[in-house]
Amino acid sequence: MNKLKIASAVCLALPAIANAKGLGQHNIEEIVVTAQKQSGSLSSTSVEQAREILEKIPGGIGFVDVTDYQDNFTQSLGDTLVFTPGVFADTSAQRENRISIRGSGLNATFERRGINVYRDGVPITRASGITEFQEIDPLSVKYIEVFKGSNGLRFGTNALGGAINIVTPTGRNTQAGNTVRIEAGSFNSSRFNVSTVGQTDKLDYYAAFTKLDSDGFRAHSDVDSAYGFANIGIELSENIETRFYLTSLNDQFELAGSVNLEDALQTPDTAVGSNFIPSFLGGPGVFTAIDDDWDRNLKVQRLANKTVFGFDSWSLEASAWFAKRELDHAITRFAGIIVQDEDEIGVNLRASNEREAHDGLVWSLGARYNQSENDAKRFFNELGQRGRQRSQDFQDAENVAIYGQFSYPVSARLNVIAGAQYVRSVRENQHAPLNAFDTEDDSGSLTFDEVAPRIGLLWTFSNEQQAYLNISRAYEAPGISDLTSAGIFPFDPLEIQQSDTIEIGTRGQSTHWAWDLSVYRSTLTDEFIDLSLGFATNTVNSESDTVHQGIEAGLDWLPKITMLSERGMQFSWRHILTVNDFSFDNHPLYGNNTLAGVPEVNYLTELSLISERWKTALSLRHVPDGPYADFANTLQTDGYTLISANASFDISDAIRVFVSAENVADDVYISNVATVGRLGERTTPFTPGQGRAAYAGLSFTF
């Protein structure tokens, strides 16, 4: 789709766009049912407190409550963010999402970059600069905050895509009780979840366990996942509260691999195997994904603590964490079996008066340090079994971040916000020779020191209507996997990625409308470009500047229909439009071509009807044209339209049943592309999307 078509689509859609959960709107459930409000605590912020803090940020913010997706078979973090303006999430493998915000990490491989992820303000993103999104269980979530771009400065974020903060249930922000949830559906899928939450005078707790099993839509895409999470809060005194977080994950899923376009559209449920690429180049040859048992198995053990000291007019938050990750990842014959064992530690200090200040100067200051050591090995893949060891590297990563932000009211309606962050990032790869013949040394080390400023304006027209402007700079250091292609290629000393962004927008609510609109333009220098070689993915810096610009818009319509309101029901019509205009700027090879990997227009709409005891919704996701598969722009995948539906009914105060259906029309489409420079006859970068599926579940609270 050319830029003229994009502009036309925006003009046609703007009068009727609706919010996909930007900050400007509240859940429709709040209109029908007045739920018991939770006050939160020093270490666990309630929904109401969180929204009050977020409304002071002059930029695009997304807000997702667990009730937004609890009736669907939501398997991963990306599934929870589908209805958030500016976020594009697709599926590259069963339970594996690629999440891109404003073009971040356009086609990063399984280890995703470009977005910093936090749980309750404590980083989950690894010190090496990458994130494993499966470390988040959607069922162990209270709400999700999405800080686009530099709007995540309150956490010291320095990535183009910004930050995602996962806020978990606690005994202070969730009603006490025990819940059992059971689900089953297509592709022999089942999920069992049990959780408990409660509190005493000085102690509160939340604990949950989730077991997920599925054969998957495609051949060789089984999932076997067990996830445990708990947090325990202790009130040490009236002004001091500490909270411990524990995570245990054992995630195993098979990989079907990407295929050529014909196979993706004609036989979307099959695995790699129909194309011949010599095995010495990493292709299937006579060994398919099934023969060599391609998979990605991840174990994570994590312990974190956050202690908050409350003072009269400000608070101090201190956190520390330790994580141990074990990866066993079998892929192509060229890449082999990747085995990694990583230990990470980190500490964070953050002081602010955000919760205490209602007028005057609002400020926050913070500092963070985290460091990881990774023992990375590669073995020959011999029909899914580890053969002879091929390489070993010791990978160290270290980050120091110091950040601050200030907001001051220059008038009753206008606030000026200014802030900056200093980031020091170290990436080091040390080759460990296996024998005297192992002479290919891929060692290397990089250190980056950068300062990123930000300034913004926030106009408040009324208690529920705002407009904003901000200008910012961000830096993103390459991840270890970017520098070494997971140990497959020699160390490549990439430059740090820089982005300069200007953003304007508005959000708010009126009697029957709620909206959230951001327009932004980012100019990037040395953007990370991922090139799939079929047998591996190589990351390089763009040889020219690139431009990311777009529109993130949403508008909810909640009309007052007397016939419905008299029966305690409310109708809602929600629309979301994301327009992505990402391109090279006079690249020596690709000129001003569109960047591959993400569609230019993504539109979603949802009709819902809710009462005190039941809810039903019908949604549609329309992509007029799919993404380009290559940077030469020789092939753009076809667009698609996906129809989904869900419904739930409260049999009693304790029992709830729910059903959902995905891709009701069984549309065949391309879900993900592994971007290449120029598409060739034997290139296999396409991942087919999931076909029709249906699920049903029951939850019981006692």
What keyword list fits this structure?
single chain, 702 residues, mainly beta, Maltoporin, Chain A, 22-stranded antiparallel barrel, 7 helices, 6% helix, disordered N terminus
What does this structure look like?
- It contains 7 helices and 33 strands.
- The model is unreliable at 1-20 and 28-36 (pLDDT under 50).
- The chain has a single domain (3-701), classed as Beta Barrel (Maltoporin, Chain A).
- The strands form 5 sheets. It has a 22-stranded antiparallel beta barrel. Strands 1-6-7-4-5 form a 5-stranded mixed beta sheet, covered by helices on one side.
- A hairpin with an 8-residue loop joins strand 10 and strand 11 (223-237).
- With 702 residues, the protein is mostly beta strands.
- The protein has helices at residues 3-13, 29-32, 47-54, 77-80, 261-266, 480-484, 562-565, and strands spanning 61-65, 87-93, 96-101, 116-119, 122-123, 143-148, 162-167, 177-185, 189-199, 203-214, 223-237, 240-254, 295-310, 315-330, 337-352, 362-382, 385-409, 414-431, 444-462, 465-476, 497-509, 513-525, 528-532, 537-541, 546-557, 570-584, 601-610, 614-628, 636-650, 655-662, 670-673, 686-688, 693-701.
Shape: globular
**What's the count of strands?**
33
Low-confidence stretches: 1-20, 28-36
**What is the typical, i.e. mean, pLDDT?**
87
The third-level CATH topology is Maltoporin, Chain A
What is this structure's SSE topology?
Elements lengths: L2 H11 L15 H4 L14 H8 L6 E5 L11 H4 L6 E7 L2 E6 L14 E4 L2 E2 L19 E6 L13 E6 L9 E9 L3 E11 L3 E12 L8 E15 L2 E15 L6 H6 L28 E16 L4 E16 L6 E16 L9 E21 L2 E25 L4 E18 L12 E19 L2 E12 L3 H5 L12 E13 L3 E13 L2 E5 L4 E5 L4 E12 L4 H4 L4 E15 L16 E10 L3 E15 L7 E15 L4 E8 L7 E4 L12 E3 L4 E9 L1
